[in-house]
Amino acid sequence: MARETVVDSRQEILRIAARLFQQRGYDATSMNDVAAALKLSKGGLYHHFQSKDEILFEIMNHAMEITQERVLNPVRGIADPEERLRALIRLHIEVVLSPRDREITVMLHENHPLPPALRKRINSRKKDYIHFLESLMGEVQDKVQKAAHQEAHRKLQPLHHARRKVSPRAAAFALLGMINWIYQWYKPEGELQAQNLIPQFTDLIFGGIFA
Amino acid sequence: MARETVVDSRQEILRIAARLFQQRGYDATSMNDVAAALKLSKGGLYHHFQSKDEILFEIMNHAMEITQERVLNPVRGIADPEERLRALIRLHIEVVLSPRDREITVMLHENHPLPPALRKRINSRKKDYIHFLESLMGEVQDKVQKAAHQEAHRKLQPLHHARRKVSPRAAAFALLGMINWIYQWYKPEGELQAQNLIPQFTDLIFGGIFA
Known about the structure:
The structure is a homodimer.
Chain A: H1 2-24, H2 31-37, H3 42-48, H4 52-76, H5 81-97, H6 102-106, H7 116-154, H8 168-180, H9 182-185, H10 194-209
């Protein structure tokens, strides 16, 4: 129980710090500002985090954990690669648009230079995600190509070898760009919301990688 | 001649300031740091720019001017919407990857809050670009749909009305995300370079908006 309370309060600190960093800029926000927003003494804040860099690192790390728990873990269990990719697009957009976690996940794009050891840990988690997505794009393309081969074979038709036009790597970066850019234009009162954005971005990617 | 020298030196200040901001972070870089990197006295720097905010605004404004001159102006003259979109994708990727201007254009994504009046001017130029791209996406879709109608009419075939699956607006944001995200993963020594990235992103978008 005691441990849970501590975890909750750390997450609350991260959420409020992320909001402040976005409103005022990371460097312009002091540890004093963060403590004041949390109604903590400066000592109380330093009890949890030794520095502002540590807070930024923990926000980014928490953002990667959210992505792991709400996007990667649920889709790993999906056997069919097409369905896996559809689910990944949907879940990732949902995380990025989640009112509760939006401020946390946006901080992944903060370009304040972290100390090298901390930056390395975040970058390594980001790379894992890119590699997962790249393999998945390849699997989806292979599956569709194989199905086309079998269909041609069944009908005794010749098949022009479909050259992969969009590589899995370029497709992975394209999708990440589309999704991670959302915070730059998204408006809660705007026309584009999760329910119409998810099918459109899904169609765009599926149409695009089989162009 | 005198005017040209002044303009050149302002642009040189902006380029070097942009590089420093990216290496050290905007807030962590002082006017002293910028002056030192330019081998200027602090007074010499203040002769050109009154504040760091003014430098940041001028960097962003210069980035939008580069986009105007090297992307928008050249494509406006292209009559065919498909060719216009192909040219826009190519030219925009080239600007984003240009070694000379990369540091300037990346600063468009700096999330340091500018004074409201300055922010408004940058946002208004960004919006103009989005609207141009949105109309272009719509024109390209309309043209292809019209051609399909004419073809069906010529062959006396019925045509299932192709519903637009990806709206011009979603397509515009998707493309901007794909291109503006490049700076997050691009490596000058990497496999993905302008010559293979441009055709892949072009295929992805054209495949996607006609999915």
